[in-house]
Amino acid sequence: MMANVLLVLPLLIPLLTAATSFLAWRRTALHRALAVVGAAALLAAGIALLVYVWNHGTIATQAGAWPAPFGITLVADLFSALMVVLAGVVGLAVVIFSLGSMDRGREAYGYYPLVHGLLLGVCGAFLTGDLFNLYVWFEVMLMASFVLLALGGERAQLHGGIKYVTLNLVSSAVFLAAVGILYGLTGTLNMADLAERLNRIGPHSAVTAVGMLFLIAFGIKAAMFPLFFWLPASYHTPPGAASALFAGLLTKVGVYALIRVFTLLFVHEREFTHLLILVLSGLTMVTGVLGAVAQQEFRRVLSFHIISQIGYMTMGLGLAGLVDSPALAAVALAGSIFYIAHHIIVKTNLFLVSTVARRICGTFDLKLQGGLYQSQPLLAVLFLVPALSLAGIPPLSGFFAKLSLVQAGLNAEQYAIAATALAVGLLTLFSMTKIWAEAFWKPMPGTPTENAAASLLAPAQTRRLLIPIGALALLTVAIGLGAEFVFTLATGAAEQLLHRESYIQAVMGGTP
Amino acid sequence: METVLAIVVGCLYAAGIYMMLRRSLFKLILGLVLLSHGANLLIFTVGGLTRGRPPIAPPGATQPPTPSADPLPQSLILTAIVIGFAVLAFSLVLFHRGYQTFGSDDPDDLKVSE
Fold it and tell me: What percent of chain A has pLDDT over 90?
């Protein structure tokens, strides 16, 4: 009973928040209050779910009590519960940041209910146990993100929006076709049931071909090489809070889906599928970080870094498929999961910092920014924490995330990918140094009067915006200092992912 | 029948991708429409075709006659059509706004003045 409630709450809370807000159309004050309460409740529900799963193992529930392969299944193992918690953290931080930064027009046209619509789709994708429902949740998430991206209708937004919408619709069409073919091959779409039936089929070329279709579909969503072009074209166009939400969550849902299907379903020809994933990871890291070097716009630098970091997350998945011993595979996957947790918090935070910098300097262009260290020392420190963490400086969270992945690479004797990961880390540091030198260190270009006119923020407003940024920075430090605890959690999640029988048992072994 | 539908699906995909590669936002939308129709028809075909045997239990029986048509692919397609309709309606409006703002239907003309 408890399990049922906990599994449904992360879906019910954002749904009710969004629906109530839509009913109270144009009552912006109510929207703002509801959004904060809803996001806080989602975070609380996520933490409760994580604690329950930690104590009781994988839990599942069947909507309407229809038994497993026929009904709609919701499942939570440690990995999905952890992702729901992270979605709650990002949601709450972004909503609080939006209170002080979003313009009146966008608020009046339903910005807050859309944020909760996005969170609903994200949590649904994390908790579903059925491939077709995964497609539906992806669409819920995409629809909300389309509108959030285009809301406001500025030239740049329309420009980015058209590319974003087109490529994501292509990805959805590929996903749908893959789901259809898989149903034709196996006669089921429940993931636990599919895992059992694919076990019975064993290695089979048609199954692997469908796996490749899933790799393309989720690869577009996750912005893997060579399918990432929509991301740098669109992420820098919406208002800062919205792009922070996108940067934190959207691509990670793609990575989550990749990890889910390539640990549960397509594991019978690993020397092909997982090697391909590993090679693509290396290329994703390198192209992303090189793209960032060439950029001179704050959010575009960060967007290319998202791509580069996606490579690290899939690297653990690729390595886990290429080692024979389950213990080493668990270390590799745990590295990926740790990396996702670290990245979601750090990247959201960097986008929020960039928005404050834009508010103060009047532009996102790094060449025209400057003097922030002198005028906003606190903001500068709060930029340094996530920036150094992203580059992997100890004792921040990024160091331990990279350390575990590189160790896994050496364990698996994949020295090329381990070397790539280290080199890309160095280039990341270079990029962060560039932002530091341009936006924070060098004096503000232009005359003082121009600068005073460009600054759009009163100091009190800036302080309000720094609250969520500071909270996320503290969380980054906490993950770094409490790395052992987080790593225990990530290893537990990885072991559950690799021990597929427990997942199948939780879903198929009768209704609770 | 499967062969015919397989060819139709292939043609829909080919036409869809061709339309998406044309230099026009409107044709891009048409391409997306064709692509999603192709995917729907693909699900219908690979789900297995059974003619004239609905999965309905006759009076007195507890089970539908075996072989009967599989209702699941049809419900999947129905869901996908509804979602596709909503998403395409949105993108039509978005692309129309783009056309009004940029004054051109050519994707290459979408430049942000900086």
Answer: 44
Condensed to tens digits (0 to 9), the pLDDT of residues A295-350 reads: 888 888 899 999 999 999 999 999 998 888 888 889 999 999 999 999 999 999 99
In this structure, chain B runs to a length of 114
Least confident range of A277-281, A493-497, B70-74: B70-74
d(CA A429, CA A434): 9
What average pLDDT does this structure show over B82-87?
92
The Cα of B59 is separated from the nearest Cα of chain A by a number of Å equal to: 24
**Which residues does chain A have within 8 Å of residue B101's beta carbon, measured at their own beta carbons?**
153, 155, 158
- Per-residue pLDDT, averaged over B36-42, amounts to 93
Give A295's contacts (C-beta < 8 A, 6+ positions apart). Answer: A301, A304
Per the structure, the count of domains in chain B is 1
- Give yes or no for a contact between A392 and A425, defined as CB atoms under 8 angstroms apart: yes
The helix/strand/coil state of A206 is helix
B38 interface with A at CB cutoff 8 Å: yes
Q: Is B21 a member of any domain?
A: yes
Please tell me which residue of chain A has the smallest CA distance to B111: A159
Which of A101, A97, A99, A112 minimizes the C-alpha distance to A467? A97
How far is the CA of A316 from the CAs of A277, A286, A287, A367, in angstroms?
10, 16, 18, 36
Distance from CA of B98 to the nearest CA of A (A): 6
What pLDDT is recorded for position A456?
A: 55
Evaluate whether residue B101 is within a structural domain: yes
Give the percent of chain A with pLDDT over 70.
96
Q: Which of A70, A109, A134, A169 to mutate to test the interface with B (most CBs of B within 10 A)?
A: A169
Q: What is the pLDDT of residues A449-475, one digit of tens each?
A: 555 555 555 667 778 888 899 999 999
Tens-digit pLDDT profile for residues A233-255: 888 888 888 999 999 899 999 99
- Strands A72-76 and A59-63, bridge-based pairing: antiparallel
Q: How many CB atoms lie within 10 A of CB A378?
A: 12
Q: Which residues of B touch A149 (CB under 8 A)?
A: none
Specify if B45 maps to a domain.
yes
d(CA A335, CA A315): 9
CATH number at residue B86: 1.10.287.3510
Q: Which of B66, B112, B113 to mutate to test the interface with A (most CBs of A within 10 A)?
A: B112
Q: Per the domain annotation, does B65 fall within a domain? A: no
Interface pTM, i.e. ipTM: 0.92
Burial code of A234-255, b = ≥16 C-beta within 10 A, e = fewer? bbbbbbbbbbbbbbbbbbbbbb
Helices (H), A57-110: 78-101, 104-108
- Chain pair A-B, CB pairs under 8 angstroms: 99
Average pLDDT of chain A is 88
pLDDT band at A512 (very low <50, low <70, confident <90, very high): very low
Residue numbers of the domain that contains B39? 2-51+70-109
Nearest to A173 among B35, B48, B97 (CB): B35
Cα A15 from chain centre: 20
Residue A107 is encoded by which pair of tokens? 């608020």
Q: How many CA atoms lie within 13 A of A60 on its CB side?
A: 26
- For B99, the closest chain A residue by CA position comes to A158
